[in-house]
């Protein structure tokens, strides 16, 4: 499924966790690992031992050594920035046929680095390939045994379910598919009850569609569930309660409907989940 994985790094705690995730993923799929550091224009000096250039090289070296110790083949590169950092990441992705990017969501405090939210968000929005994100408190399981994918029946959710199903089959994992009914959209009363029932009926249809989708070829262990509450909270809670190792989410939902597949909710899940989140579109 993954043949070439890209790890942008700056040596921060978040990127160190990302390195663990990238190495584990590469090891599971016997994939090549590409480790890069993007230099700012003011980071090209190598006049002293504490220079940013040297720091970047050391960050890359640390990730490469981690890969080597796990028997993962790694390619390294320190790139001088000629355009925005996320564009450099995406250019490298295109030129080297990368099929997954793994990156942290925060970088070194006070520095405008690639692991800060703005660059991570831009990468997520524009990347043509799946992006796995982690943060400082993410727990990396070396073997993915269970995967969660939320759905709302939209085209974007269809893509996420397809990717999650393929991933689950590749690593022999159990797939969990959930639909979230957002209770905050309604108030008390009989009309509310009817609306909730209607939303749950839509959810059942969305889950049936997802189940048919992932079971269209060979059998895949799959669990489905409808949950009620704020979407990002329920997604994270479900992942915690069911010991999920990875969450797969779409970055857009149905137009005109404030659903959990919209960027704001995906972003909240990325920041709050204690497992890696793979975003697809």
Question: How would you portray this structure in words?
Answer:
The longest helix is centred in the last third of the chain and has 25 residues, at 190-214. Helix 2 links the parallel strand 2 (32-39) and strand 3. The chain has helices spanning 13-29, 52-69, 85-95, 117-126, 155-171, 190-214, 231-241, 263-272; strands spanning 4-8, 32-39, 74-80, 100-104, 131-134, 146-150, 174-181, 222-228, 246-250, 277-280. It is an alpha/beta fold. Helix 3 runs parallel beside helix 4. The chain has two domains: 4-134, 3-Layer(aba) Sandwich (Rossmann fold), CATH 3.40.50; 146-280, HUPs (Rossmann fold, 3-Layer(aba) Sandwich), CATH 3.40.50.620.
Describe the structure in brief.
With 281 residues, this protein is an alpha/beta fold.
Helical run tally:
8
Shape: elongated
Task: Give the overall average pLDDT.
Answer: 85
Please trace the helix and strand order, writing H or E for each element: EHEHEHEHEEHEHEHEHE
Amino- and carboxy-terminal Cα gap: 17 Å
CATH homologous superfamily name of the largest domain? Answer: HUPs
CATH architecture of the largest domain: 3-Layer(aba) Sandwich
Q: Roughly what percent helix? A: 40-55%
- Low-pLDDT windows of residues: 107-116, 253-262
Number of strands: 10
Q: What is the radius of gyration computed over CA atoms, rounded to a whole number of angstroms? A: 20 Å
How would a textbook summarize the main sheet? Answer: 10 strands, mixed
Q: Might you state the CATH topology name of the largest domain?
A: Rossmann fold
CATH class of the largest domain: Alpha Beta
**Biggest sheet: strand arrangement:** 3-2-1-4-5-10-9-6-7-8
Strand content: 15-25%
């Amino acid at each position: 499924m993954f043949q070439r994985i890209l790890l942008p790094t700056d040596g921060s705690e978040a990127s160190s966790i990302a390195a663990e995730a990238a190495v584990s993923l590469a090891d599971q799929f016997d994939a090549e690992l590409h480790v890069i550091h993007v230099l700012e224009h003011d980071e090209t000096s190598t006049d002293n031992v504490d220079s940013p250039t040297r720091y970047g090289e050391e960050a890359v070296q640390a990730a490469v050594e981690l890969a080597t110790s796990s028997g993962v083949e790694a390619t390294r590169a320190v790139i001088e920035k000629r355009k925005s950092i996320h564009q450099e990441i995406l250019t490298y992705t295109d030129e080297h046929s990368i099929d997954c990017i793994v990156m942290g969501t925060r970088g070194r405090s006070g520095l405008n680095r690639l692991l800060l939210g703005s660059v991570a968000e831009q990468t997520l929005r524009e990347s043509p390939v799946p992006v796995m994100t982690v943060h400082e408190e993410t727990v990396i399981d070396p073997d993915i045994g269970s995967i969660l994918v939320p759905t709302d029946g939209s085209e974007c959710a269809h893509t996420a379910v397809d990717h999650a199903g393929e991933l689950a089959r590749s690593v022999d994992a159990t797939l969990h598919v959930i639909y979230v009914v957002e209770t905050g959209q309604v108030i008390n009363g009989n009309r509310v009850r009817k609306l909730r029932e209607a939303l749950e009926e839509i959810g059942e249809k969305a889950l049936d569609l997802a189940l048919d989708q992932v079971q269209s070829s060979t059998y895949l262990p799959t669990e489905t569930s409808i949950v009620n509450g704020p979407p990002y909270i329920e997604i994270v809670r479900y992942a915690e309660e069911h010991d999920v190792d990875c969450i797969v989410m779409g970055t857009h939902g149905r137009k005109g409907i404030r659903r959990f597949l919209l960027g704001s909710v995906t972003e909240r899940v990325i920041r709050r989940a204690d497992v890696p989140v793979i975003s697809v579109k």
